[in-house]
Write a structure and sequence with these properties.
six-stranded antiparallel beta barrel, conserved putative lor/sdh protein from methanococcus maripaludis s2 fold, Elongation Factor Tu (Ef-tu), domain 3, alpha+beta, 34% strand
């Protein structure tokens, strides 16, 4: 094909595409004009429809109030808490080791059960130690008899020395013999006590009130002084140790030293749902700040009557440092986060809403917060329905739990219904 024909075909194709496009662009206008003439509307009818769409209160504009839930700002005494993650620690932890070596005869405790101070929790074979004690007692009695004989001999010769029947040198020997036997008897008494202590060590006694852990030996095992039998933990009362940032040190120290009552501490479960025990009290503030974390350590004590706090457990801690009188409290769900900070929608006298910036000073329970500025007592704030609002929106204020009523139909809606559905209903009848 020659170059001439190629150019001609391209021109023809461009003309065809242009004609189709022109046809499509002008077809709706023609149909619209024709349709309006067929219905008898004319130019006047179209103008009237356009005007009706733009009139205030017409179908093109919705002034229906937005139903929202509002609650008032209230004033109340608000406790101020510092929160932290704490670790439960036993009041006392004792690893029980035997103090003498021997064969384990009996284990007298149940693992995981409570033991009392002074209870015999295990017994080592005492026979060897009993024999040693008996020998020590016998040796003491033997030496006491020798001492008694020596004392009698000294007394008899003491009466004869004046008449010259006994030499003075012999008297010195008698006196020294008595003194020597007295010292021997004292040593025997000490040896007997030592043997008795070793014999008593065959009974392993609980040194504290606590809970027994898992035992490490069984009856029949030969144990030494390095063998760990069981670990006992005292959990009533019990400690909770937690850390706070160093910027809270001054407030905590002032409250701890100057407070009329002890600082209360609450231990909550990991979900902050409920307290695990009765309220505890701050007992100790550590004497230094950890330079690696910038925190300081505190220790609280709980009575733990139900053993709900367990050693090694992680808990959420709330330390009450002070109480604010007349704090402004609102529901937490009323506070919204904006680009410039927290705000709430406040109800105005004309039933519109306005954005009010607020500063949240702390949590009050699980569902409320305290604000330090931005609101006054009695101000109504929106708690539900905020996503449909903007500053100046008209609202229908409802109390919590109320159901919004359906809006009344306007005159335009009634007229539209009569011209449409109402007439169709009559024709069908």
């Amino acid at each position: 094909m020659s170059r001439f024909w190629k150019i001609a075909l391209i021109v023809i194709a461009v003309l065809v595409v242009g004609g189709v496009a022109f046809r499509l662009l002008h077809k709706p206008e023609a149909q619209t004009a024709a349709g309006s003439h067929r219905h008898g509307g004319g130019q006047g009818s179209g103008d009237n429809d356009a005007k009706g769409q733009n009139q205030p209160g017409g179908p093109g504009q919705d002034n229906t109030p937005v139903p929202v839930t509002v609650e008032p700002t209230v004033s109340q005494s608000v406790p101020v808490y510092l929160t932290a993650l704490g670790t439960v620690t036993a009041l006392n932890t004792v690893t029980v080791n035997p103090q003498v070596a021997g064969q384990m005869w009996t284990i007298n405790f149940q693992e995981g059960k409570a033991v009392k101070k002074g209870d015999v929790i295990a017994q080592i074979d005492p026979r060897t130690f009993q024999a040693a004690y008996d020998q020590a007692v016998a040796k003491q009695k033997q030496d006491e008899a020798s001492l008694s004989t020596a004392v009698s001999t000294l007394d008899r010769n003491q009466k004869l020395v004046a008449n010259g029947y006994v030499a003075a040198l012999d008297m010195d020997t008698f006196r020294n013999n008595v003194a020597q036997l007295k010292a021997t008897v004292i040593a025997d008494e000490a040896a007997a006590r030592s043997a008795k202590v070793q014999l008593d060590f065959t009974k392993i006694i609980s040194p504290i009130d606590g809970v027994a852990g898992i035992r490490n030996v069984d009856p029949g095992n030969v144990v030494t002084t390095t063998t760990s039998i069981v670990t006992l933990t005292q959990i009533q009362p019990i400690y909770v140790i937690f850390n706070l940032p160093e910027q809270n040190l001054e407030a905590v120290r002032n409250a701890f030293q100057n407070g009329a009552d002890k600082l209360q501490v609450i231990a909550l479960d990991r979900s902050d749902a409920h307290p695990l025990d009765t309220t505890g009290f701050l007992q100790t503030i550590d004497n230094q700040i950890d330079t690696t974390t910038g925190t300081f350590k505190l220790r609280a004590q709980f009575n733990n009557p139900q053993s709900s706090l367990w050693p090694g457990q992680f808990v959420n801690v709330q330390l009450r440092v002070r109480t604010v009188s007349g704090g402004l409290v609102i529901p937490a769900q009323a506070v919204q986060r904006g680009p410039d900070g927290d705000f709430v929608y406040k109800l105005q006298p004309d039933q519109t809403v306005a954005m009010a910036p607020v500063t949240v000073a702390g949590e009050v329970g699980d569902s409320h917060v305290m604000v330090s500025n931005g609101l006054n007592v009695g101000d109504q704030v929106v708690t539900e329905g905020q996503f449909r609002l903007k500053p100046g929106s008209k609202v229908q204020a409802l109390k919590p739990g109320e159901v919004p009523q359906a809006p009344a139909a306007s005159d335009a809606d009634k007229k539209k219904w009569k011209q449409g559905g109402g007439r169709r209903g009559s024709s069908n009848s």
